[in-house]
UniProtKB/TrEMBL annotation, chain A:
GO cellular component term, pick one: membrane
SMART domains: AAA
GO MF annotations, alphabetized: ATP binding; ATP hydrolysis activity; phosphate transmembrane transporter activity
Organism field: Opacimonas viscosa
Coiled coil ranges: none
Keyword entries, A-Z: ATP-binding, Nucleotide-binding, Phosphate transport, Transport
Domain spans labelled ABC transporter: 31-273
Pfam families listed in its UniProt record: ABC_tran
InterPro entries, alphabetized: AAA+_ATPase (IPR003593), ABC_transporter-like_ATP-bd (IPR003439), ABC_transporter-like_CS (IPR017871), P-loop_NTPase (IPR027417), PstB-like (IPR005670)
Protein name as annotated: Phosphate ABC transporter ATP-binding protein PstB
Alphabetical list of CDD domains matching this protein: ABC_PstB_phosphate_transporter
Entry keyword annotation includes ATP-binding: yes
Any one Gene Ontology BP term: phosphate ion transmembrane transport
Automatic annotation (TrEMBL), chain B:
One of the Pfam families matching this protein, by short name: BPD_transp_1
Organism encoding this protein: Opacimonas viscosa
UniProt cross-references to PROSITE patterns, sorted A to Z: ABC_TM1
Name of the gene this protein is made from: pstA
Keyword Transmembrane: yes
Name of this protein: Phosphate transport system permease protein PstA
Lineage: Bacteria, Pseudomonadati, Pseudomonadota, Gammaproteobacteria, Alteromonadales
Membrane protein topology class: Multi-pass membrane protein
Length: 278, 429
């Protein structure tokens, strides 16, 4: 068989990442990131990454563990602001507005760029309250019936409504893992974001629940721009239109998913997707 | 294939090695369990003995002996003239005369004084109130029940047990008491006054109402000040404050503050709150402020630990939806941390409830007969009342002391029960 390559000899060896290859930019970009560097105290987690998220498309961020794809994702809606000692440089532009500008309110930003996390994290409240929380804090509903409607449509879009419609007042934490994750997606949709960031949304789920989520993602891209971090290459191949391959904090290659998985340009990408390491 | 006995089953070298150590491991486990169980049983026995001892000592305080006096409300002994106010008559004289009529054989002056001593000093007021309530009894002889003196009360309660007179009651007095008992003029009643009256120098009149009200008012001040301040400080330090040298220093100092002897806080209260700010002495307001200083560190430390224990994923979930920090804190972090915060609060409040030393410094140790009606009235608190009674030489205070401890424990129990109820509500949400 092949010799197992570790990430170390990949960079110290003959393969050197020298800027990214492929097509990281596109014409109908919802978000454009340029020259992004992220530091955790002294550690640089992201090195000079530039890429676009295409509108109404699913962009998959793949790469071995610790390559910085989650960090990058969390920078997009400024969740990294919460981590002290985390420093972000570079430019993040959504619809022409710089996200890290002084006058950009992270609260508004996070309402427009929603996030679904790796581990389902419903609030320890009722299913209804979980979905209603976002619209409530943003004042999106003026009446109880309007709120009811938002909750119902959000749950429907997340494909959960039929399963929970009789127990909306039961705690969200009592649902199964897959249901919880769909509840979290419903909660994110409820504030009508423009972009949804998903950080390995199916990694804690069984194959059936995963399939449901993947189907859901494919449907959601009709309305939303989606970026998804995943460890499963099959998942990336199934749900995404664009794929970005990260390695040790650098963007190695980005392009159409079909092209990345069938004919990668970079040696590292090929090694990774052919399962030689990762 | 037949099943094999695990003892004779063929085994690998590793299995044998594990088996060799098994007995030792099980033994260790059993020893540890035995230790744990012993500790629990020991604790239970101690608590049981404590409660049993206090309760058995306290029981006599809940009853009080009353004696019937046939009071002759003659106008002569009352020195009553038409139009006189019934409140201003000579009741002491009347009471004495009535007592002497009951024991006509007592002639000597000294004996008469001794005989008078069998009745509570409060008796003359009792017969006065009787007449004021029934003005038509003027000029008639009426049976009126009055309290016996505390020495007589203790004697009556303990003579059954001991069978011999106590030092404070001599043979003559014992004979008079026997006569009264034989005549059916002595009655044991439930001592409701223990709960409805305040402190007194006379054990038969002393009650806990003043101290209980003082404790209640003081605890309210403490709770109202220390809970919001403590939780706000904890929330700020945990959720909002930057982590730097200053906040580290504040944390260390809060921990140190929790270990400061409580009397120091009393000195601070005396020097700053009373002398500098000129607040009234002996007041529940000042007591509450001093106890707040003492309770705050406990609440802050417990609240911080509890807030820290809220999973970060919940904060991320709320922030990811666009909730601000304050919204995240108040709608998710605090409710989840609330059970722990309440536990810390109740520990702090229980400490404050039993605290005596700092209150001595701010004058809550004074002898106060009135029930405080506001936060600035002079008052005392239960533990100080217990301390005062335990310090009194009268034997009647012995049972009162234990009874007051029981009342204090009851107060504590109620406080804990309400906290447990609130906890349950927050946990079920």
């Amino acid at each position: 068989m092949n010799t197992v390559m570790t990430s170390e000899n990949l960079t110290s060896g003959d393969i050197v990442i020298n800027g990214s290859v492929g097509t990281p930019f596109c014409d109908d970009a919802k978000m454009s990131m340029r020259n992004v560097n992220v530091f955790y105290a002294e550690n640089q987690a992201i090195h000079d990454v530039s890429l676009d998220l295409a509108k109404n498309q699913v962009t998959a961020l793949i790469g071995p563990s610790g390559c910085g794809k989650s960090t990058f994702l969390r920078c997009i809606n400024r969740m990294n602001d919460l981590i002290p000692q985390c420093k972000v440089t570079g430019s993040f532009v959504m619809d022409g507005a710089e996200l890290y500008a002084k006058n950009m309110d992270p609260v508004l930003l996070r309402a427009r760029v929603g996030m679904v996390f790796q581990k389902p994290n419903p609030f320890p409240k009722s299913i209804y309250e979980n979905v209603a929380y976002g619209p409530k804090i943003h004042g999106l509903a003026t009446s109880k019936s309007e709120l009811d409607e938002i909750v119902e449509t959000s749950l429907q879009k997340a494909g959960l409504f039929n399963e929970v419609k009789d127990r909306l007042d039961k705690p969200g934490t009592g649902l199964s893992g897959g249901q919880q994750q769909r509840l979290c997606i419903a909660r994110t949709i409820a504030v009508s974001p423009e972009v949804i960031l998903m950080d390995e949304p199916a990694s804690a789920l069984d194959p059936i629940a995963t399939a449901v989520i993947e189907e859901l993602i494919s449907e959601l891209k009709e309305k939303y721009t989606i970026a998804i971090v995943t460890h499963s290459m099959q998942q990336a191949a199934r749900v995404s239109q664009k794929t970005a391959y990260f390695h040790l904090g650098k963007l190695v290659e980005m392009g159409d998913t079909k092209q990345i998985f069938t004919n990668p340009s970079h040696q590292l990408t090929e090694n990774y997707i052919s399962g030689r390491f990762g | 294939m037949t099943k094999q006995d695990p003892q004779t089953m063929p085994r690998s070298a590793v299995t044998e090695k594990i088996e060799l150590g098994l007995a030792k491991r099980h033994r260790r486990e059993n020893i540890f369990r035995a230790f744990g169980l012993t500790a629990v049983i020991f604790g239970f026995i101690l608590v049981f003995f404590l409660l049993f001892d206090i309760t058995s000592k306290a029981l006599p305080a809940f009853h009080q002996h009353w004696v019937k006096v046939d009071v002759n409300y003659s106008e002569k002994s009352l020195r009553y003239a038409a139009g006189d106010n019934l409140a201003d008559l000579s009741y002491r004289n009347t009471l004495r005369k009535s007592i002497y009529e009951t024991f006509p054989e007592v002639k000597a002056r000294r004996d008469k004084r001794q005989l008078n001593g069998l009745f509570s000093s409060n008796a003359e007021f009792a017969i006065k109130e009787h007449l004021i309530a029934n003005p038509d009894h003027l000029g008639t002889t009426q049976p009126v029940w009055v309290r016996v003196d505390d020495d007589v009360d203790v004697y009556l309660k303990e003579v059954e047990k001991l069978g011999e007179p106590l030092v404070r009651i001599d043979q003559k007095e014992a004979q008079w008491i026997k006569t009264l008992v034989d005549n059916g003029a002595i009655e044991k009643r439930f001592n409701i006054e223990f709960f409805t009256s305040s402190d007194s120098r006379e054990p038969e009149l002393a009650g806990v109402r003043g101290a209980l009200t003082g404790t209640f008012l003081t605890m309210i001040v403490t709770l109202v000040l220390s809970f919001p301040l403590g939780v706000a400080a904890a929330v700020y330090l945990e959720e909002f404050a930057p982590k730097n040298r200053w906040t580290d220093m504040i944390e260390v100092n809060i921990n140190n503050l929790a270990a400061v002897p409580s009397i120091i806080f009393g000195l601070l209260g005396l020097a700053v709150i009373i002398n500098l700010f000129g607040m009234p002495r002996s007041a529940p307001l000042v007591g509450g402020i001093v106890l707040t200083l003492m309770t705050l560190p406990t609440i802050i430390i417990a609240s911080r630990a509890s807030i820290k224990a809220v999973p970060p994923s919940i904060r991320e979930a709320a922030m990811g939806l666009g909730a601000s920090r304050v919204q995240t804190t108040f709608s998710h972090v605090l409710p989840m941390a609330m059970p722990g915060i309440l536990t810390g609060t109740i520990i702090g409040m229980a400490q404050a409830l039993g605290e005596t030393a700092p209150l001595l410094m701010i004058g809550m140790v004074a002898f106060i007969v009135d029930v405080p009606s506001s936060f600035t009235d002079a008052s005392t608190v239960m533990p100080v009342q217990i301390f005062l009674w335990a310090d009194s030489p009268e034997r009647g205070f012995l049972a009162k002391t234990s009874a007051a401890i029981l009342v204090l424990l009851g107060f504590l129990f109620l406080m804990n029960a309400s906290a447990a109820y609130l906890r349950r509500r927050f946990e079920s949400k």
